[in-house]
Amino acid sequence: MPGQPAKMPDRPEQQPAATGMASDRFPLGAAVTLADLEVNPHPVLARLREGEPVSWLPALGGWLVTRRDLALRVMRDAAAFTVDDPRFSTARVVGPSMLSLDGAEHGRHRGPFTRGFGHAEVRARLAAYVEAEACRLVTAMRPAGAADLRAGLAGPLAAAVIAEALGLGNADPSAVLAWYGAIVDAVSDLARGGPAAGAGDEAFGLLSSSLRAALAAGDRPSLLAEAAASASGLGPGEIVSNAAVLMFGGIETTEGMITNAVLHLLSQPGQLRLVLDHPGLVPDAIEESLRLEPAAAVVDRYAARDVTVGGASIRRGDLVTVSIAGAGRDPAVFPDPDTFDVRRENARLHLAFAHGPHFCLGVHLARLEAHAAVRAVLGALPGLRLDPDRPSAPRGLVFRKPPSLHVRWDPGHPAASAPPSTQSSSSSTPGSPTPDCLPQPENSAHLSKSPPPRIATAVPGSCVLHRA
Ligand code: HEM
Questions:
Q1: pTM over 0.85
Q2: How far away, in angstroms, is 432 Cα from ligand 1 center?
Q3: Which of 148, 246, 332, 404 is the most exposed place for a label (fewest CB within 10 A)?
């Protein structure tokens, strides 16, 4: 998954080939601060894309690629731009996985999971679960008339779904999230150049035992069990490492994807109206939101050899950060790129799920979750609107989302209704009488659980996967 340099600003070994002349050759890059990138990076990214599409940023200790065509080039060429570098800390905590390998070894680790995470398989196995869980969470909050949708819906949904996919559906959700948090902390500590928190090893040990026990019991079909069964050549430890990466990949990003999509819609009443009138636009709205504010704003690579990209001479060993956020607003591909337009025809050309060999494995599951969540809130929370007293905006260097998303609705409305169907093009308004948003009976065992607690966010400026 996307991430940060192993050691962020203090990386003298990461100076570019021509250190002395870097600020002369890349004055725009030299002026960029981490705060610029964290708070509202888009004006800075636009300037870089225009003037220095591959620029040296002292603040990152690496190159930043902001043009879409060049971003594609870097992500496609794993021989020149690799993830297989000891400076990425995730592998040091959870062991080698598809995320930290390239070439044949990457294929060996990823291969057993590709069928299970394919579109048809994900739908068949998890669609009912995801929809019921989204519905359960929204139904539970409905009487209150106000909520933080990130803490109350997006985070818990993402955590519950990945636990289910990994066969951990019987585990205590708060324990799973505690392991997740401790592992994230350990990867973050390493990424900052310090020793990993001991709790990280312990948590990975507990996660590992839980996954191994679920696999050994063999009584709960899951995407992980299927991968393990077909894992020609992957040992149990390797299966567990990849499962940990799936867990990291599946939680914080999906939480951001859902939160950003709802925020975009509620911030633009005209666009919201369009989607309410044409529920078939829900997937388009989500893709447009991914283009405008991808939940994972960057991915990192290391140059495996000297290479020239966009006029910049990159030296072997240099950090090369691809700005997915920059690519998503490239005006050469997306006219009027800063506008949220749910009818934009080519929004799906965004790179929010990366590209090339490390293209997001969880893309179909993430979309399934986001569609279900957005349909649930639009359908079941009549008069849904942003809470004017508690505004919020996306932030974050790597993972971008608002710290919270406080909304209000009208709980006393006669028809707190069901989510509009994305299959239908019929008109639906918040409050129009539609079927109840009720859990499906087959999920009732799970649905009786209390919702998982709020997910801890990774340390700002850090990535939970490659290197927290
Ligand atoms: C159920 C949810 C998800 C799961 C299980 C998941 C899983 C994964 C995995 C396992 C990888 C590594 C693939 C490889 O290295 O071969 C990956 C890559 C990636 N995912 Fe996801 N992901 C999910 C959701 C998301 C979301 C919502 C986003 C962003 C909107 C996202 C963005 C990315 C990106 C950018 C990469 C590439 C990382 C890199 O190349 O360094 N993922 N994902």
A1: yes
A2: 36
A3: 332
